[in-house]
Amino acid sequence: MSLVTLLPFIVLIGAMFLMTRSAKKKQQQAADMRNQMQPGSGVRTIGGMYATVKEVNEDTVLLDAGPGVELLFAKNSIGAVLTDDEYNRIVHGIEHDLKSDAGLVPDDASSLTDSDESAEAASDGDTSADASVDLGKKDTAEEPSTADAKPGEEPKKSDGDSDAK
After folding, report:
1. With left for phi above 0 and alpha for psi between -120 and 50, is residue 8 left, alpha or beta?
2. Cβ contact 45:79 at 8 Å
3. Spatial separation of the C-alpha atoms in residues 63 and 33, rounded to whole Å
């Protein structure tokens, strides 16, 4: 057997090794994160619930989800341990560092344009942009309706009508 025939198998085994290695690395990071949980830490479960850690045991975590609501979760059901700032921002809507918002672009671009030009354009009375266009179907007088037909007459057929009933 030559090296060329063995090359696809070698590449396949190498790819499988790399994939299992990265998966094990992610599992190890998740386990380390869960082991670093302490009472008072904010967490997000894999189901998307936010709570505060009240007690950490070997395999379980007691979470405080609100006044009088304590929940017992398996330790591996914790999806993320959050920083205090991140937990307060998500759960309570509290922004810790307001100075970081100073460089943000506003949602409305009108504050970025010169207000004198917009005032002149509004006062010109240019209504061409405001004119409405009627795209509705117009009634045509060419086609007689069946209500206008006399009782003894059959309605006239157009090109699309057929004799089949």
Report:
1. alpha
2. yes
3. 16
**pLDDT tens-digit readout, 135-144:** 777 665 555 5
Q: What is the spatial distance between Cα 14 and Cα 147, in angstroms, rounded to a whole number?
A: 80
| Residue showing tokens 């010109």 | 124
As a whole number of angstroms, the distance between CA 19 and CA 14 comes to: 9
Type of residue at 114: D
Rounded to whole angstroms, the Cα distance separating 110 from 40 reads 44
Q: Which span out of 21-25, 93-97, 138-142 was modeled with the highest average pLDDT? A: 21-25
Residue with tokens 């409405």: 132
What does DSSP assign to residue 128? T
- How far does CA 57 lie from the centroid of its chain? 35
Element (H, E) at 101: none
pTM over 0.70: no
